[in-house]
């Protein structure tokens, strides 16, 4: 199980930090964050692999940073220079080593006001 936290309401240009904690005893090949805005499909925001490499959606490059030990939790998403279009429910995701089973957190709402 994954527990996500850190969402909230912030003004344009503000910052938030999301945290994702997994139940103990699991190792992951990757951990990351997805988001789903109202009426839109879920999209990848950022992912960190167990070798330390990262991937970001083009829309967040230079503004968001994922950190932490992606083989174990926790993993963090630092979000700076937030824009109204970043408003969405953010979901933590982790892929388990060997089985590739995907875990999902419960989602945390991020709202950026203009």
Outline the structure in words.
The chain is mainly β. 0% of the residues lie in helices and 54% in strands. The chain contains no helices and 11 strands. The protein has strands at residues 2-5, 8-11, 16-22, 28-36, 43-49, 54-56, 64-68, 75-79, 88-96, 102-104, 108-113. Strands 2, 4, 5, 6, 9, 10 and 11 form a 7-stranded mixed beta sheet that branches. β9 (88-96) and β10 form a beta hairpin. It is globular, with a radius of gyration of 13 Å. The mean pLDDT is 94.
Task: Indicate the topology.
Blueprint: E1 2-5, E2 8-11, E3 16-22, E4 28-36, E5 43-49, E6 54-56, E7 64-68, E8 75-79, E9 88-96, E10 102-104, E11 108-113
Parallel strand pairs: 2-11
Antiparallel strand pairs: 1-3, 3-8, 4-5, 4-9, 5-6, 7-8, 9-10, 9-11
Keywords:
114 residues; seven-stranded mixed β-sheet; 11 strands; globular
Briefly summarize what is shown.
The chain is an all-beta fold and 114 residues long.
Q: Helix- and strand-based class?
A: mainly beta
Number of helices: 0
Our estimate of the beta-strand percent is over 45%
- The gross shape turns out to be globular
Largest sheet: 7 strands, mixed
H/E topology pattern: EEEEEEEEEEE
Given as residue ranges, the uncertain stretches (5+ residues, pLDDT < 50) are: none
Residues in helices, as a percent range: under 10%
Q: Cα distance, first to last residue?
A: 34 Å
Number of strands: 11
Question: What is the average of the pLDDT values?
Answer: 94
Q: Any idea what the radius of gyration is?
A: 13 Å
